[in-house]
Amino acid sequence: MIKKSKISNSINVALLASVSAASAVSVSAYAEEESANVERIAVTGSRIQRQDMETASPVTVIDAGAIRAEGYNSVDEILQSQPAMAGMAVGSTTNNGADGVAQVDLRGMGSNRTLVLLNGRRMVNSGSGADSAVDLNTIPVAMIARVEILKDGASAVYGSDAIAGVVNIITKKDFEGFQFDVNGGATSEGDGENIELSGLYGFNTDRGNFTFGLAYSERKGVMQGDRDWVEQGESSFIPEGTLGGKQINPETGEWGDREYGYDYTQDSWLQTPNKRYSFFANGMHELNNDMILSGDVLYTKRKSKQMMAAQPANLDLKVCENNIKQDDCITLDQAMIDGGVAADEEGMINYRKRMNDVGNRVYEQETDTFRISAGLAGVIDVNTGMDWDLSYTYGKNEADTWVHSSIHQGNMEKSIYANQDAWFGGDPMSQEMIDAVSYTEQTNGGNEQHVVAGVISGEAFDLEAGAVAFAIGAEYRHESGYYNPDPVIVAGEGTAAQQDPTDGSFDVFSVYQEVSVPFTDKLTGEFALRYDDYSTFGSAATWKIGLTYEATGDLMLRTVAATGFRAPSVSELYGGNSGSYDYLTDPWNNEQDPQILVNYTSDEDLDAETSESFTAGLVYSPSYIEGMSLTLDWWRFKIDGAIARLDVQAGLDNCFAGDASACDTFNIGANGDLSDLTNPLTNVGYQDTSGIDFNLAYTFEGLGLDWKINNDLTYLLNFEQDGVDYTGTIGGMYGGYAEYKNNFNLTASRGDWSVMYSNRYIGEMNDVNTGEDISSVLYHNISGVYHFTDGFSANVGVKNLTNEEPVSVTSGNEAGTVPEVYDTLGRQIYAGISMKF
Question: How far is Cα of residue 43 from the mean position of the Cα atoms in its chain?
Fold first, then answer.
C-alpha cells in the first residue's frame, strides 16, 4: 500500500541526500549512512526506484540553503559557477544576440547537449522561438528545493539531448504554512540592483498536500562605459559617416582619412535588465491506498532588454557614370575626388554611418512560458510490489520581440540618392530623414511540447546477493517550433543581417528498460537500453552499462560506459538562412571591422549526433576520519557526426593559405571576397573531451563550532572539436576551456548562526586566436545566515570581495573580455530575509 508516511519519508531522504557542505557534493558521499531501512525513491539518472543513493553515475546536488547562502539570483548563475561547466553559456551578461535567454553548458559541449528536467520530466525549450535548449529564466530560484546535476551521458535513460548530462531541478513541495522571502543586492558601484520577492503557501489534506508559490524578480542593467577597465571601442562606423573610407570635415568641407573610431561601449550594457513574474504549484492527492494523483504547474513571464550602440548602416552605393546626376546613383563632387573618394571597378562605393540620430538599438523581449505536468502513480500487488507511473506533460512558450531604432536599408538608399548633400555633409539628420529610414523591427516565435510517458518498476526476482530491480517504460513526444522575423529582415531590406522564417515539428516514440543486478554482495551491475523512432531522421538505439563495487566498507569503485545521441532540433532542420556578425580576422585585410557578416544555413537532411561516454571513479569515506568523504572520477565524451557550424576562422586561414576546398566550403570569393561568406550546419563535426572531477567534503567539530569543508575541482585533460584543440583556450566565439576550475567552501556554524567563506578559481588560458596568455583569476566570497526564530532568518553576503576585474581577452566578444566566463560586475553586496508563519 501507499501511505502518506511513505511519501513523506521519500521526500525527507531525498532532502537529506542533498545536504551539502555549503555548496555542492556528490550524492554518493552520503549513501552509506542513509541506505538502511528507507523507502525506495527516485534518483536522477535512473527510472528504477532505489532504497539507497548509490549509483554508478556521479551526481552533484545543490540545495536551497546553498543557493541562498551564495546569493544566486538565477538558475544559470547557480549552474555556471560549477567547475564542470565550460564553454560559453549565454546569460545575464550576454548583451549581443541572446534575446535575454539563459542556458547551461555542461562540459562546454553546448547547451543543446545538456538535458534540463523539471521534477524528473522534460522542460519545454524556450526563448524567442524555434529554440533548441531551455531558457533557465523560466524557472524562478524561489521555487527550487534542490538542483541535481548528473555528469554522465544519459541518453539510454532519457533519450535525446542528454549527451553531456542532465540537470534536474526539483521544486519545493510538501510544504505547510506561509513563507515570504525578500532577497536583493547591488554592486559596490551602486548599480546592477536586483531584487526577488516570493511567497510560498501550502496546506495538508487528509490525503495529500498542495503547495503554491508566486515570485517576482527584477535585475537592472549595468553599462560597459561605467567600468574603468572597459577599453574604448574603435568602430569604423562613425556618426558623421564615411564614403569609401573617407570622412568629411563639416567646417571646411574637405574629405580625408577617417580620423577616429567610434566608442560603442558607452551605449552597450554589461549586465542586461530583466523582469520576471512567476506562478508555480505542486499538488499530491491520494486517491486510495494504491493510487496517487500528482502534478505541477509553472508559468513565467519574462520582460528583458539589451542595448547596443546605434545601428551601423553599411551600404554599397552606385556612382553615377561620368558624374552625370541620376535618381539611382550618387555623384562625386570635386572635394570628394580631391580627398581620395573613388568608385571601385564595378562603379560602387561603400558608405558607412553610425545612425546615432535615430538612437541606440534596443532589443526587447516579452516571453510567456507555461508548463503543466500531471501523473498517476500506484502499486501493483505483484511479487514484492511493482510501482507504476503514467504522466502527461505539456509545455508552451510564446515570444514577441522588438528591435527599436532599426534601419530600412532600401529606404535609406533611396533617401541618400534623393538627398546626397544632406547625407554626406556631416550634419545631424533631420527628423524627416530619420522617419524615412527608421522603423521598429518586430518578430514572434514559440515552442510547444507534448509528452506522454508510462513506466513500471519493481523487483523481478531474487538472487543470492539480493533482488534484481527493473524499470520498463514507453514515451511519446511531439515537439514543434516557429520563428517569424520582421518582413523587412526577411526581404533583406534592413541594415541588420537577413533572416528567413523557421517552422517545423517532429514526433518520437520511445521504449526503454533498465535492470539493476546484484551479482554479489559487493558488485552491482546497472544496464539500460533505449530505442527511439523519430519522424525526421529515423531511429536510434542507445545503451548504458554501469558497475559499482564495494571494495571495502570505506571504498566504492564505480564505472559507466554508455552511448548517446542528439536529434536535430527544429531550428537546425527547418531554420531559414540567417546572418550573423561574427568576430573574425580577415587574413586579406579587406574588411575594416572584426565583425564580419556570415550567412548561417540549416539542413532538413541532418542526421542525429551519436556519442560515447565513459566514467570511472571512486567514492571514499575513511572510517578513521569521521565526517570525511571524497569522490574522484575520470570522464570522457566523444561525439561523432556532431551537428555544428564549422570554424570560420580556420576556413579563412586555410583559404588564404591556398586550400581551394576551404574557399568553396565557406563561399569565399577571389582575392578574399567575403560578401557571401557562409557557415553551413553539417554532420561532419566531432567533439572529444576528457577530464577528472574531484570532490572533498568534510564535516567536523572544533573550537566549539561546527565546520563544513567542501571542495570541487575539475581538471580538463582535453577538449578537441573539428580538428582544433581548445584545451586551455578562450575566445569570444567558443568561450573558455580552462584546464583547472575549482570551488572551495568553508562554513562555520553554531546554534542559530553560520558564516561561510568561498572562492572560485578559473585557471590561466590562451587566447584561441592570438595565442596571448590569459592569466588566472580567483574570486572570494563571504556570507552569513542568522536564524532569529524558527520562522525568521536573515542572510547577508559579498560576492567578489576583492573586486577582481575580468581578464582582458583580445578576441573576446564584449567589453574586451568574455562576460560569460568572467565576473564583469565587480564586488556585489546582497542580503535577504525569510519569514515563515
Answer: 24
Structural domain count, the chain: 2
Rounded to 5 degrees, what are φ and ψ at 823? -75, 115
pLDDT tens-digit series, residues 532-560 = 999 999 999 999 999 999 999 999 999 99
CA-wise closest residue to 748 among 797, 785, 708, 780: 708
CATH number for the domain spanning 456: value is 2.40.170.20
The residue ranges of DSSP E strands in 621-677, in sequence order, are 628-645
Which of 354, 381, 414 is the endpoint of a domain?
Answer: 354
Are residues 232 and 122 part of one domain?
no
Cell 517576482 belongs to residue? 216
Question: 253 and 370 share a domain?
Answer: no
Per-residue pLDDT at 31 exceeds 60? no
- 795: domain range? 4-221+272-311+355-836
Mean per-residue pLDDT for 601-621?
94
Contact 294, 377 (CB under 8 A): yes
Q: 406 and 321, same structural domain?
A: no
Statement: residue 35 has pLDDT above 50 = no
Q: Write down the mean pLDDT value for the chain.
A: 90
Task: Give how far Cα 104 sits from Cα of 261, 377, 442, 553, Å.
Answer: 35, 31, 27, 36
Query: Do 446 and 558 fall into the same domain?
Result: yes
Alpha helix (H) ranges present in 527-625? Answer: 570-574
376 vs 372: CA distance, rounded Å = 14
Q: Please report the pLDDT score of residue 41 as a whole number.
A: 64
Assess whether 53 and 92 both reside in one domain: yes
| Residue 83, amino acid | P
Q: Give the three cell numbers for residue 243.
A: 564614403
How far apart are the C-alpha atoms of 640 and 623, rounded to whole Å? 44
What is the SS3 assignment for 570? helix
The phi and psi torsions of 74 (rounded to 5 degrees) equal: -150, 160
CB burial of residue 450 (10 Å; 0-12, 13-18, 19+): middle
For 534, other C-beta atoms within 10 Å of its C-beta total: 19
Helix (H, G, I), strand (E, B) or coil at 494: strand
For residues 163 and 244, membership in a common domain is answered with no
Measure Cα distances from 361 to 219, 496, 602, 609 in Å. 20, 11, 27, 37
- Cell readout for 342 is 573613388
**How far apart are alpha carbons 657 and 649 in whole angstroms?**
12
111 shares a domain with 84: yes
Per-residue pLDDT tens digits for 657-683: 999 999 999 999 999 999 889 998 889
- Which among 481, 572, 477, 480 is positioned nearest to 534, based on CA atoms? 477
Radius of gyration of the chain (CA): 29
Residue 798: other Cβ atoms inside 10 A: 19
CA distance 424 to 715: 57
* 626 grid coordinates: 569521521
Average pLDDT, integer, range 384-412: 95
Residues 393 and 504 in one domain: yes
- The span from the CA of 133 to the CA of 118, in Å, is 14
Bridge partners (DSSP) of residue 798 are: 782, 829
- Read off the pLDDT of each residue in 459-473 and give the average, rounded to a whole number: 94
d(CA 741, CA 777): 10
Calpha distance 754→640 (Å, rounded): 48
In sequence order, which residues have a C-beta less than 8 Å from that of residue 377 and are 6 or more positions away? 291, 292, 294, 387, 388, 389, 390
28 — pLDDT class (breaks 50, 70, 90): very low
Tell me how far CA of residue 603 lies from CA of 161, 581, 641, 645, in angstroms: 19, 21, 14, 11
- pLDDT for 622-664, tens place per residue? 999 999 999 999 999 999 999 888 889 989 999 999 999 999 9
